[in-house]
Amino acid sequence: MASFVEKLLAPFNALIPARFRSDSPVVPVVRLAGMIGVSSPLRPGLTLAGLTRTLDRAFAMPRARAVALVINSPGGSPTQSHLIYRRIRQLAEEKKIPVLAFIEDAGASGGYMLACAADEIICDDYSIVGSIGVIGGSFGFQEMMKKIGVERRIYTSGERKAMLDPFREENPEDVARIKAIQADIHAHFIELVKKRRGARLKGDDKVLFSGEFWTADKAIGLGLADSRGELRSVLRERYGEKVRLPVIANERGFLGRRLMGSRVSDIMRGQGGFADDLLTSLEERALWSRYGL
Asked: How many whole angstroms separate alpha carbon 196 and alpha carbon 121?
């Protein structure tokens, strides 16, 4: 019956807008760009809260043949990376829709975790892929404080509450503790990659999970990516020249718009916010520079 109706309406297809035609395959596109978790009002990072509605809309789109993720991220928060990854996998399994990841400049660290939510990972010749590891850092100011005659006074309830305080001498026990936490996170990251990539992984674990990163040739050879390509040409080749690629943009609700407007006004009047955005910008710049970008 459905085929009879389609045949009956076929002569009128040219008069129907493409988005309403049943003969036009659809692949919604979701951009996952920037640092993960770390954000400020003017430099929003990638978080589950900010992406939930976008992902829901993408996977709910009628006639979707797949969902394409365009990834351009140097990483960030492991927790937010995993929460976004899990949400994508839940929707893909619930809707039974394949997911394709297209890595642009970088799919590194948490950005690579996002790529692992896809059934297939496609990258550019010059994409940075990998960096499967955990990193943390701080500074030590205790010697500078001695020189300028500043005394650190800190009051806590809890033996470990002031752990890794940058204004005090480094405590080997604190370092051991943070390294243990990093090792635990790293182990879970490795397990996730092995689960998603499976037999496609070809390298030695000591290489794959060393925190090293590669461009397309090596990443494909190691099984961390599947092929080279660019979103439009790949999807047209697979789904035809008429495939529609609607970009599902992040929505900002009424309250978010008001808060954003207020914050911009405050900054223009010099009433705060600039320092937060500057620090976020510097942190983001440092993260990108680790990959030579």
From this structure: 11
Nearest CA to 24 among 54, 61, 57? 61
Q: Residue 70 has what DSSP assignment?
A: E
pTM for this one? 0.78
Nearest CA among 120, 122, 58 for reference residue 84: 58
The rounded distance, in Å, linking the Cα atoms of 105 and 99 is: 19
Domains of the chain with CATH codes:
24-131+212-289 (3.90.226.10)
147: three-class secondary structure by DSSP: helix
Rounded to the nearest 5 degrees, what angle is found at the Cα of 234, between the Cα atoms of 193 and 45?
A: 50
- Let me know: does 40 contact 280? Beta carbons within 8 Å: yes
130, 108 contact by CB (below 8 A): yes
Q: Are 36 and 73 in contact (CB under 8 A)?
A: yes
pLDDT at 271 (0 to 100): 47
CA pair distance 36, 73, nearest whole angstrom: 7
Distance of CA 54 to the CA centre of its chain: 14
The CA-based angle 284-130-192, given to 5 degrees, is 105
Q: How confident is the model at residue 279 (pLDDT cuts 50, 70, 90)?
A: low
Which amino acid appears at position 281 of this protein?
S
Six-digit token string for 270: 């010099």
Residue 107 main-chain phi, psi, to 5 deg: -130, 75
| C-alpha–C-alpha distance, residues 53 and 249, integer Å | 10
Q: Which residues contact 237 (CB under 8 A, 6 or more apart)?
A: none
| CA-CA-CA-CA torsion sign (158, 162, 164, 170) | negative
